[in-house]
Write a structure and sequence with these properties.
Elements lengths: L3 H6 L24 H11 L11 E4 L6 H16 L5 E8 L6 H11 L11 H10 L10 E8 L1 H8 L2 H7 L4 E7 L10 H4 L5 E4 L5 H15 L9 H11 L4 H17 L7 H21 L3 H15 L4 E2 H12 L6 H13 L3 E7 L6 E7 L3 H10 L1
Parallel strand pairs: 1-4, 1-5, 2-3, 3-4
Antiparallel strand pairs: 6-8, 7-8
Helix pairs in contact: 2-3, 4-5, 9-10, 9-11, 10-11, 11-12, 12-16, 13-14, 13-16
Length: 383
């Protein structure tokens, strides 16, 4: 009997190499981000003169190239450092993986060669070990450390601003913060803001033609020649431009369309597959989100779905009435529902819009679904 993997390997594919369509792949050139990368470099160039750079914050929606630009600048700085008489380190931390100050400092210590456990020590022991790294080297040089904190808003929301307090009060440390939200500084207290005088760089969403350029470069590396119909890349770009210029989404569309072509044993990726890929991606995203939600939040979504399908205007009062009906006696308080609404809005599943009812009638929050009814219904009743 032949091995099943041998049979699958014998099938043809439209791909040469999928890795170039992964948003984590760092290309040698980042189209349409030269200005932002140069801005980072202008602040970091001080390190080449043995001066600790200013703190920097970069903002932008998901898929606007923030992480790629920061990593690209890190690589360029490392290359420039090789010919200079300075000691510079750059360390990258993704705050979705390390969500407390202790974990971040421990990870930094580990990346710089100190054996620090992720639990068991006091905070003071971890911080003192971290700061001990900054003693002069045997050659009398001071180390300058640039820490990149990606999705810092998650860390600050989860654990407060202690990490910024520690890093801004450690000599020779510069922070580059990456956030999807302009208002993330609301989590930073005034005592920390006084020493966190950052420079800000904004990453605008990509336009449709810019996304075409990005996809064209990646597709040349990823697909076999002449395997894409002419409308595929413009269609992926147009769909992603509607999603606030999200390059990750554009790459995901193109890769998924190629995978669908392979599933159908087609040697050509055509436009209809891009539309099918869109449905598949959205379905998977919503389903995965809802499967991880607490039961009470799932019930709130079920109530919103029922009201939406009944073409009702969804106010918080109507929502609570339907939620109680769905919950069948196992419900939370009216006030707690507002917390659920805020959390679901942050996840992008719903949106709220405050409208005025006119003089003397006050203002009302109107709640709307931000995903397809059929996809939400399938996700709710298949969990």
């Amino acid at each position: 009997m032949s091995n099943i993997f041998d049979n699958l390997a014998d099938r043809g594919s439209v791909f040469k190499d999928k890795q170039f369509l992964d948003h984590r792949f760092l290309p040698e050139h980042l189209p349409h981000r030269d200005e932002q990368i140069t801005s980072i470099a202008k602040y970091w160039i001080e390190a080449l003169n043995n001066v600790t750079p200013s703190d920097v914050t970069i903002y932008g929606k998901t898929g606007t190239g923030k992480t790629a630009a920061a990593k690209f600048a890190m690589n360029q700085l490392k290359e420039a450092t090789s010919s200079k008489d300075v000691y510079i380190r750059t360390e990258y931390i993704r705050c979705t993986d390390y969500t407390t100050e202790y974990q971040v400092i421990a990870k930094l210590c580990q990346q710089m060669g100190r054996d620090v456990p992720y639990r068991g020590w006091t905070k003071a022991e971890v911080v003192n070990t971290f700061r001990d790294i900054f003693k002069k080297t045997a050659f009398g040089k001071n180390m300058i450390l640039i820490v990149v904190l990606d999705e810092i808003d998650i860390l600050l929301k989860n654990d407060g601003d202690g990490i910024l307090y520690t890093l801004t009060r450690t000599d020779n440390v510069s922070i580059l913060s990456i956030s999807n939200y302009v208002d993330f500084k609301k989590f930073i207290k005034s005592r920390v803001m006084s020493s966190f005088r950052d420079r800000e760089i904004v990453f605008p969403p990509y336009g449709a033609q810019q996304l075409v350029d990005i996809l064209q470069e990646r597709s040349d590396l990823s697909f076999i020649n002449d395997s894409l119909e002419n409308d595929v890349i413009p269609l992926c770009a147009a769909m992603a431009a509607k999603e606030e210029g999200d390059a990750r989404y554009a790459l995901d569309l193109l890769r998924t369309a190629g995978e669908l072509a392979d599933e159908k044993e087609s040697n050509i990726v055509y436009g209809a597959l891009v539309r099918e890929a869109k449905d598949k991606i959205e379905h998977n995203k919503i389903t995965d989100l809802i499967m991880t939600l607490p039961v009470q939040q799932q019930r709130v979504l079920e109530a919103i779905l029922k009201l939406t399908m009944d073409k009702e205007e969804i106010t918080s009062g109507k929502l609570y009435e339907m939620y109680e009906e769905v919950s069948k006696g196992d419900s939370v308080s009216y006030r707690r529902i507002f917390d659920f609404i805020n959390e679901l809005e942050m996840l992008g599943i719903i949106s709220t819009n405050t409208i005025s009812r006119g003089r003397g009638k006050g203002r009302t929050n109107i709640i709307s679904l931000q995903c397809d009814n059929d996809i939400l219904e399938h996700a709710l009743y298949s969990t």
